UniProtKB/TrEMBL annotation:
Amino acid composition bias (Low complexity), ranges on this chain: 321-334
Organism encoding this protein: Penicillium alfredii
Documented EC number(s): 2.3.1.-
Residue stretches spanning the membrane: 84-105, 184-204, 224-242, 262-283
Catalytic activity: an acyl-CoA + malonyl-CoA + H(+) = a 3-oxoacyl-CoA + CO2 + CoA; a very-long-chain acyl-CoA + malonyl-CoA + H(+) = a very-long-chain 3-oxoacyl-CoA + CO2 + CoA
Pfam family for this entry, one: ELO
Protein name: Elongation of fatty acids protein
Record-stated family: Belongs to the ELO family.
Amino acid sequence: MASEFLQNVPLPTLDRPFGVHLWPIFDKTYELVMGYPASQFEFVGGVTPLSTFKETATLLVAYYTIVFGGREVMKNFPALKLNTLFMIHNFLLTVFSGILLALFVEQLLPTLWRHGVFYSICDHRGGWTQPLIVLYYLNYVNKYIEFLDTVFLFLKKKPLTFLHTYHHGATALLCYTQLIGLTAVSWVPITINLLVHVVMYWYYFQSARGIRIWWKKYITMLQIVQFVIDLGFIYFASYTYFSSVYFPWAPNMGKCAGEEFAALAGIGIITSYLLLFISFYIATYKKTAKVGRPRRNTGKDSLIDMKNYEVPSVAGAQTPGGAKASNGNAASTGRSNGPVTRSRKA
């Protein structure tokens, strides 16, 4: 029976890296939801929902208004638990990110193998096919759904860091600029980001369940690596484009598909991510290593201080904070007025 079952299992191939052909399944599922198959989707600026700068800007203004306004309102109310909703939110984002990533791999692997990296990132026939445009758009729409991350934070009265709020808004804007800028290199940062999100949202899901995860700092490290790889591709694609157009005497590999404003937006936003995440890592984990470790013979008070240390939350690398001291003086004295608790929510 086992041998017969294995014989019926489709084996992975270059065109079907997961054994089964995912796109037809996705195509039919998309049709059930939207009323037409994904293979008929067209991104048309000014026609497709969320395809204008006005719509994008409106949603970004609404996001920051709700977030910072909500934080002020919540000062007058106790923190909400919302643990079940938080678990559902993170589990669904884990699954959605995984599905998108698998669909991207199925589309890109044959192109990369048969035509190479340059063709895949600099030619519209390689990195701007109709199936990829569908996936780019769904990833873009998902960035607005991820705004709920911040809503959970202020409803639970968690700290709203600059990195968290900036990252969410800037990522939605980044995806918009790349869509209307027709950048074939878009799949590089998107696929790596989806991989990070599978890990990150799974971590949040498990944390909300009360499971202690030891590798939370490696999520931030993974994101830093992500931005380094992203910028390597983006800097290369931008360099060869601008060199071929404005400095043809400079060594280059020719024009790379995409609009100039999209290239500049990608360079600016992702470079800022890299700098901010490195700064966050140093401030959080290097500080923990220096001040969070008790010195020899410091006794019980130092151990309490370690338990009360709280790590700030950020958008791409939110980390569940530890418990705060019971009163305003506890952090400085190393003593609390009640039992020490630890939050497991991001």
